[in-house]
Amino acid sequence: MIYDVFYKNLPYIDLHGYDRESARVKTEDFIIENILLKNKKILIIHGIGQGIVKESVYKVLKRNKSVVSYEIDIYNPGCTIVEIRLK
User: Fold this and answer.
1) Which has the closest alpha carbon to 18: 59, 42, 54?
2) Number of domains within the chain
3) Contact 12, 41 (CB under 8 A)
4) What's the chain look like in SS3?
5) 11-42, pLDDT tens digit by residue?
6) Is the Cα dihedral 34, 56, 65, 83 positive or negative?
7) What's the whole-model pTM score?
8) Tell me, what CATH number does 40's domain have?
9) Distance of CA 16 to CAs 6, 26, 61, 63, Å?
10) Which domain holds residue 47?
């Protein structure tokens, strides 16, 4: 399945078990790492739960000027696909 191959090749971070603040810091660091590594697309796994971690991640994505776009994965609402502006 093409869908599986696509995700296996994306750098990703899994934030299951993180609290709001830890998820924020880890997301910011992950974006910076991938800018340096010149990865244009990344995957953030935030889970569904009560939406606390997702809310924290989306605040970071909204404020970060290096983030071109982000969208919830249509096949898995616990993941967000992020496009990064490379410098």
Assistant:
1) 54
2) 1
3) no
4) CHHHHHHHCCCEEECCCCCHHHHHHHHHHHHHHHHHCCCCEEEEECCCCCCHHHHHHHHHHHHCCCEEEEEECCCCCCEEEEEECCC
5) 999 999 999 999 999 999 999 999 999 999 99
6) positive
7) 0.90
8) 3.30.1370.110
9) 21, 12, 18, 22
10) 2-84
